[in-house]
Automatic annotation (TrEMBL):
Gene3D superfamilies: Aldolase class I. Coiled coil: none annotated. Pfam families: Oxidored_FMN. InterPro entries: Aldolase_TIM (IPR013785), OxRdtase_FMN_N (IPR001155), YqjM-like (IPR044152). The keyword Mitochondrion does not apply. Residues 4-341 form the NADH:flavin oxidoreductase/NADH oxidase N-terminal domain. The lineage of its organism: Bacteria, Pseudomonadati, Pseudomonadota, Gammaproteobacteria, Alteromonadales. Its cofactor is FMN. This is FMN oxidoreductase. CDD domains: OYE_YqiM_FMN. Keywords: Flavoprotein, FMN, NADP, Oxidoreductase.
């Protein structure tokens, strides 16, 4: 029996298999609101055969967007547009859907990837003044952020909570907090970007405080039966930065607070990073964290082949596999994986005639 196609629970969320579609920014929103592109994009992913879909990084405030075309969930208009897109996209799918809540911090006000690298100026038509834990720019192509005051930090935590409540009201299955890839929560975590001298800076406990306060406030707001996990960058790939040892301790702390899963990535905080990218290069970080916690751990990063994914689960290096670019390139990746691994998978009735009989789930 294929373990990749065995069931898995993320908190109260039941998955039919261990293939999870990781968040992928589409840069296609209007004033934070989902558009027809999102409807079409999600419809395709929701018929892929994966176990769950995590919606792209969704900003909790206008200032928290990576670009002016990012998805948001800070007001009724954003919530209504998201509800409309989701109602169509999931009309014929029962795949669990989670949403990644995020704030870009000093990496906000950016150009879209197909335009150019770097950020727009604060006075640009589609730009704004960015904010972070400290007044340190990502690099010379990005703005120098204003340092958040304690009052502003409290407001940001409230904005995360409000977005979480909206997520629950939308009928989603859970939330993933984005604490990775050099965005705001990660900026607080790393000593490379956090030079604060108050209770949110300095030692490990202080640098983790912002994330812990967001997590505990959301958990209190949505209750124990709503899935809540965290995506982390397990290392900055820079000496003296955030690293695996700190990530392991953070994972332990989060698990004790009722975290339902840890989604393990790396990098994104510093332009000085040196990433040895290769197939499965981030899996050892997931394996190390899995050894420290009893909650599910998701591995991601250049996992493209079915047997590769199966081997990771079999070796207990992770509990689930996150796919992003691979499932865009091959929208029914799970169908092909089921055939290769001798597993069965649910297929929409309308598509039954185009797939081999041996993978059809009765």
């Amino acid at each position: 029996m294929s373990l990749l196609f065995s069931s898995l629970k993320l908190g109260a969320c039941q998955l039919s298999n261990r293939i999870i579609i990781a968040p992928m920014c589409q840069y296609s929103a209007h004033n934070g609101q989902a558009t027809h592109w999102h409807t079409a994009h999600w419809s395709q992913l929701l018929h892929s055969g994966a176990g769950a879909l995590i919606l792209e990084a969704t900003a909790v405030s206008p200032q928290g967007r990576i670009s002016h075309l990012d998805l948001g969930l800070w007001d009724d208009d954003c919530q209504q547009a998201l509800a409309q897109s989701l109602s169509i996209a999931r009309a014929h799918s029962d795949m669990p859907i989670l949403i990644q809540l995020a704030h870009a911090g000093r990496k906000a006000s950016a150009y879209t990837p197909w335009q150019k690298q770097g950020a727009r100026a604060a006075d640009d038509l589609h730009g704004w003044q960015v904010e972070s834990c400290s007044a340190q720019a990502y690099n010379e192509d990005f703005q120098t952020p204003t340092e958040l005051t304690q009052q502003q930090i409290t407001l940001l935590i409230d904005q995360f909570v409000m977005a979480a409540k909206r997520s629950q009201a939308l009928g989603l299955n859970g939330i993933e907090l984005h604490a990775a890839h050099g965005y705001l929560i990660h900026q607080f975590l790393s000593p490379l970007s956090n030079s604060r001298t108050d209770q949110y800076g300095g030692n490990f406990t202080n640098r983790c405080r912002f994330l812990i306060e967001i997590f505990t406030a959301i958990r209190a707001a949505v209750g124990e039966k709503f899935t809540l996990g965290v995506r982390v960058s397990a290392t900055d790939w820079v000496d003296g930065g955030w690293d695996l040892v700190q990530t392991e301790q953070l994972a332990v702390n989060l698990a004790q607070l009722g975290c339902d899963f840890i989604h393990v990535s790396t990098g994104g905080l510093s332009p000085a990073q040196h990433i040895p990218a290769a197939p499965g290069f981030q899996v050892p970080f997931a394996q190390a964290i899995k050894a420290k916690v009893a909650i599910p751990v998701i591995a991601v990063g250049l996992i493209t082949e079915p047997q590769q994914a199966e081997d990771i689960i079999n070796a207990q290096q992770a509990d689930a596999i996150g796919l992003a670019r691979a499932i865009i390139y091959q929208p029914h990746w799970p169908w092909h994986a089921a055939k290769q691994l001798g597993a069965k998978i649910a297929i929409p009735n309308q598509y039954l005639r185009c797939v081999p009989n041996e993978i059809k789930q009765q």
